[in-house]
Task: inverse folding
DNA sequence: CAATTTTATTCGATTGATATGAATATAACG
DNA sequence: CGTTATATTCATATCAATCGAATAAAATTG
């Protein structure tokens, strides 16, 4: 038996829908459907009551899903054994730029607990520049920040990933197009003083031509996206955040210069006491 | 991840050899090798130290194998959920013909514990005819016997499987061939009075032409095979028992009439109090 | 209750994974 | 040191999984 069948079963039981599960697992609805059909055949049991749409888990299906959790947990423990970083011990102070913490911190934490059980972590969130300063002063061992312009070259900078910046607007304003929208709706601007804020400001200056209806500055990605959903205005933010927070009331548009990227990087002191652990910390940020 | 990779890992760790594991799992050595390579890649870990031949499990490999056991156990519990026979409750008295009990009883027991946790069983072993009699008298609810000639037609007979009868001889006598061997070595005959004994007697009368060196009657398959290993003489027994008990000192030969079969069947009283459970009992005899 | 939307299943085609057998390489054994 | 036992590699064939499009079925809406 293959555990990915069990994982999709679990996902379905979480989201109560084949289609949603398919999205979460990055595959087609058809694949999910086939997988569940396959699973039911292998087990020679009917896990779903297909008189309902979406199909509803049968009592047996529910029981199987519970056992499935046990299987994937056991599998996870097996894999953890292989990916442990036993040399990572002691206490680490790690900073996360606010705009990335929601996405990177949770997986970092679960990875850390699994793979570096002997290490302890203190977390701190803030603006890129402040975090950078603290790493330099030794108040933090490492920080995940937005790279903007030039970074202090006395720090070691490991680029972790690049995120496209995309526009998010209320669906009602979507058909207008970008240019028109700027004239009639306020732009929700993430703090222009921050690392990512500077990038946003730069792009708006370029594409907006200064012809902007009005500008609202906010310091919170979630709040901005809530405003978009409410129809207050439109915004420009990293794609993963937009995707994470958007619902069906939000239209997504891509800038003309679609090479507009925000770089997230891990900064450390190249010859600090925890320099040898940089790679290990970096590895905990993924998977 | 696919659990069959873990199962082969476990089998290898049991038998300490890729080749043996391949045999047990009914696949080629090459497949086993590929699977383990695959597993090591997936886990990004080296489970075997290939400076040894057969490869030796690394400490990590050993640890992984332990966790693998947990995974397959969890998987087994999941499958058990689906194959439960919840309507099989109460106490059942089941007989096994001695010559089949060693092979069928263990799997029956594990299946019963897994799939019919609410039922209790009493077991009894004996000769086919005696067991048949007890089923007829209601002293047993069911029995697995060797079908010989005509069975009492007041009993329900479900043929479970057919087993080929094969000769087993000490390797030293192997090259002689069957006819020659009969002239120089004693034949180890399983009790001629029993169901399977009758079949054996029948075949020996046919192929032996009465020209037999000598005949030793024994009532125990294991004992007969031990004698064969010791070089005492040769025998004719069901293939699965020979395969189970043979070692490299034993040569196996097939009768000219290789259609010679022994039928194992489940007999029950067609209208007894447990008649409705016959199918369920039958299903417990197999995987 | 019919029309429409949402959601899942089925189907054909393509792609990828896995097993096999033969050839090769490597460790173990006498 | 040659032989045997054992595992790996490679090419090939077979089988399974995924995708996208078409279809079917339940849920929702007017």
Result:
């Amino acid at each position: 038996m293959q555990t990915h069948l069990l994982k999709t079963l679990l996902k379905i039981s979480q989201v109560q829908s084949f289609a949603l599960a398919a999205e979460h697992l990055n595959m087609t609805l058809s694949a999910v459907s086939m997988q569940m059909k396959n699973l039911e055949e292998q087990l020679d049991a009917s896990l779903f009551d297909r008189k309902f749409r979406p199909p509803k888990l049968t009592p047996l299906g529910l029981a199987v899903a519970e056992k499935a959790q046990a299987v994937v947990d056991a599998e996870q423990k097996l894999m953890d054994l292989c990916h442990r970083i036993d040399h990572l011990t002691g206490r680490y102070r790690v900073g996360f730029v606010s705009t990335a913490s929601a996405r990177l911190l949770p997986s970092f934490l679960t990875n850390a607990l699994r793979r570096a059980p002997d290490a302890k972590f203190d977390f701190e969130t803030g603006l890129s520049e402040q975090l950078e300063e603290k790493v330099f002063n030794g108040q933090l061992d490492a920080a995940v920040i937005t790279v903007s312009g030039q970074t202090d070259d006395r720090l070691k900078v490991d680029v972790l990933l690049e995120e496209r910046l995309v526009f998010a607007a209320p669906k009602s304003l979507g058909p207008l197009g970008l240019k028109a929208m700027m004239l009639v709706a306020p732009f929700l601007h993430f703090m222009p003083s921050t690392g990512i804020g500077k990038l946003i400001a730069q792009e708006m200056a370029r594409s907006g031509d200064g012809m902007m209806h009005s500008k609202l500055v906010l310091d919170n990605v979630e709040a901005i996206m809530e405003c978009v959903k409410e129809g207050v205005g439109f915004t420009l933010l990293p794609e993963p955040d937009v995707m994470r927070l958007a619902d069906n009331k939000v239209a997504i548009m891509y800038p003309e210069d679609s090479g507009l990227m925000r770089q997230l990087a891990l900064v450390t002191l190249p010859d600090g006491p925890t320099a040898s652990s940089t790679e290990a910390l970096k590895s905990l940020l993924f998977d």
